[in-house]
Design brief:
Helix content is about 15%, strand content about 50%. It has helices at about 1-15, 165-175; strands spanning about 25-30, 50-55, 60-65, 75-80, 85-90, 95-100, 105-120, 120-135, 140-150, 150-160.
Length: about 180
């Protein structure tokens, strides 16, 4: 009986604490073009800013794309971080997003499948983003790859964490003194 209880507690502890050391990507991030390794399309399809909300097993990612002669284009996607399929839309096309943690909880792999329908013909675009943070938590790296009928693409995008406005004000006050 005692052995069974010990095994149960060991398994339960592993399940409860497995997510405790996972990286938290929450915050506002700005694109660092200089340090990124851009793919064939350059920075054309890269957001200038990303806002991430992460709580428990859920994430919301808001991407802001700057456009020269129009208002910024904002795209938001919500998904869970448990490896389950999350359905949404991307330009009136079905999108399936699946996000899974690495064993050590330091990387998040986000796989996306979008099925486009153009003039009665369907084609898919599959992409993979592998997210990681620098040790100091101030740099988000996304290793991006995609495959579609139009070819393959790979890039590494770097985003810098935006300083909290209160921290900026405190720094300004320190410099004034």
């Amino acid at each position: 009986m005692l052995q069974k209880m010990f095994v149960f507690l060991a398994v339960f502890s592993t399940v409860v604490f497995a997510g405790a050391d996972r990286v938290n990507f929450a915050g506002e991030w700005t694109f660092d073009k200089e340090n990124s390794k851009l793919g064939e399309f350059g920075d054309r399809f890269v957001p200038s800013k990303i806002k991430i909300a992460q709580e428990d097993n859920k994430m919301s990612v808001e991407r802001v794309f700057q456009r020269e002669y129009e208002d910024d284009f904002i795209m938001t996607v919500d998904f869970t971080l448990d490896g389950k399929e999350n359905e949404s839309e991307f330009w009136n096309s079905p999108r399936i997003t699946v996000a899974e943690w690495s064993e050590d909880g330091k990387k998040l792999t986000i796989k996306t499948k979008i099925t486009f329908n153009r003039e009665g013909e369907e084609f898919e675009m599959n992409s993979t983003d592998v997210w990681s943070l620098s040790d100091d938590g101030k740099q988000l790296t996304t290793e991006f790859s995609s495959v579609s009928d139009r070819g393959e693409m790979e890039a590494v995008y770097i985003f810098k964490k935006a300083e909290a406005k209160n921290e900026e004000k405190q720094e300004e006050k320190k410099e004034e003194k």
